Amino acid sequence: MRFFEATHKYPFDWETVSLASFRKYPNDKTPHVQHVEVLNQEIDPETGVLKTERLIMVKQNAPRLMMKLLGGSDSSYVLEYSEVDPRDKTLTMHSTNLTFSNLLTVGEKIVYKPDPEDTKNSTLFAQSAKLSADGVLSRFSSYIEETCLKRFHDNALVGKLGLEQVLHKILAEKRQERGGAGNMAA
């Protein structure tokens, strides 16, 4: 079993970062994410919590030996559950792999929340993951876990770059809206 953790502080307000998280795909920084399908979405009328279930199709370059032995394709699927709590200002996302889950399970949790030191201008990001190849013969499980952990780490880095790209796009849209509204009033 392997564990991954990462934290980051985005110099953007929580609302903008949360919006960017849902608009993250597709983008050129994360070409491995091929498609995102919203399966279910509902708002709790009492709490205002938005719950979303998405299916994410990812193209991964799995080791050739593994693909030959298991007979899979280069596309894999991830199921993601998210909750946006507008009162507590938290976005929590849980995801797990569906493809080859009998051989390798990857459980990921991401939380976005305002930075307590600067709630209006900064958002904290916390990511954790557990990778386990328990279903594989023990002599191969360590190799598979290490290979997948490295790939997870690399994907996390490009995912951060992808989110930052979307954040800047949203900021540009906001500036354009303010500029457009100001021009209309003049």
TrEMBL record:
Task: Outline the extent of the PRELI/MSF1 domain.
Answer: 1-175
Q: Which GO terms describe its cellular component?
A: mitochondrial intermembrane space
Specify the superkingdom. Eukaryota
Q: Which residues form the signal peptide?
A: none
Q: Which InterPro entries match?
A: PRELI/MSF1_dom, Slowmo/Ups
Name of this protein: Phospholipid metabolism protein
Q: Which organism is it from?
A: Mycoemilia scoparia
Traced from the root, the source organism's taxonomic lineage reads: Eukaryota, Fungi, Fungi incertae sedis, Zoopagomycota, Kickxellomycotina
